[in-house]
Write a structure and sequence with these properties.
It is built from 10 helices and 13 strands. It is an alpha/beta fold and about 325 residues long. The strands form 4 sheets. Strands 3-2-1-4-5-6-11 form a 7-stranded parallel β-sheet, with helices on both faces. Strands 7-10 form a two-stranded parallel ribbon. Bound molecules: NADP nicotinamide-adenine-dinucleotide phosphate (NAP) and guanosine-5'-diphosphate-alpha-D-mannose. The site of guanosine-5'-diphosphate-alpha-D-mannose has 22 residues, from helix 3 and helix 6.
Length: about 325
Amino acid sequence: MAKRKRALITGITGQDGSYLTEFLLAKDYEVYGLVRRSSSFNTDRIDHLYQDPHESDVKLRLVYGDLNDASSLNQIIKTLKPDEIYNLAAQSHVRVSFDIPEYTAEIVGLGATRILEAIRDSGVMSKYYQASSSEMFGNSAPPQNERTPFYPRSPYAAAKVYAYWMAVNYREAYDIFACNGILFNHESPRRGETFVTRKITMALARIKHGVQKDLFLGNLESKRDWGFAGDYVEAMWLMLQQDKPDDYVIATGQTYSVKDFLIEAFGYVGLDWEKYVKIDQRYFRPTEVDCLLGDSRKAKKILHWEPKTDFKQLVRMMVDADMACVEKQIYGTKGRR
Ligand code: NAP
Ligand code: GDD
């Protein structure tokens, strides 16, 4: 029997980590997830995948560590000798990165370097996936592809640019199989509730059920290329299955404004968004990224990857999930009677 491949995922408790774990377990990988210590449980998104470590043939295990702590990363990588490492952990909120720029750089930038150094130092030569971001393009005119210059507009984006170049450098200097997935925004019912799409769908469900009156937002004019996270994790895996490491843009090739998202979501449940949305300056950023629109022809040609979910399907999937979630909160596990 062929030996199971072993993957280490940092950020396993996040949106992408949960979908990637499902994807790799379905491919019969042995998955190790790095989790940081928290005073309350932070594993909601992967609880349905949990396996009792006392059982036999356990395929998912969690290990404590932190991207801020090189010694834990060195130890974990030396001991586990993973075939593949997916570095998804981050302080991933752009607006928050203006409030905590130093911490953001520490985790997003230096955290990636710590993993690359641990790979080099261990001699294990695990393949490495870096969660790079379309935010790195910032002010560069759309459409953006692998040859578009970076012009970061936030501490988060600047830190991601540093991590991107460190992955490229370790590939060129030490022959490490390091890939950058430059992913455009991707969303899902598991999206964190402070990102704009989920903030909208959650508020909408609460408004529809009469338990919230208003929705406070910032800039409604910015445009994003929004895809479904479940589609995007396949692209991460595909990058590490190629003969040569490389960098790829992953996107839908369609862009919509925050206002478009509001129109689609509120329209779907028969409400007029303008009656509920109020503007609050606190949600604006000191520097904004006006328009992201990805050109992922390289991924299509080499990885044979294409998104399966369009904007309308994504919005409806998120609204349906949050309507069910709010109903459960209000009416209990039996739902609406
Ligand atoms: P997310 O939901 O915010 O998840 C972030 C994950 O990182 C969580 O598991 C979090 O753990 C973990 N983490 C944060 N700080 C850590 C630390 N110091 N040490 C260890 N783990 C830490 O993010 P996501 O949307 O899944 O995104 C995954 C990655 O892709 C991120 O690197 C993000 O920057 C990048 N990205 C995302 C998108 C997108 O549209 N979603 C697009 C491009 C790139 P806790 O659960 O304990 O907080
Ligand atoms: N979060 C948030 N909250 N954003 C708002 C709000 C609000 O109340 N009102 C308007 N927006 C606008 C933001 O100004 C931005 O232009 C847009 O909605 C999207 O914001 P987010 O959902 O926070 O995502 P993001 O584009 O800044 O960053 C996400 O995508 C990046 C990839 O491009 C994050 O997932 C990053 O980690 C990721 O790298």
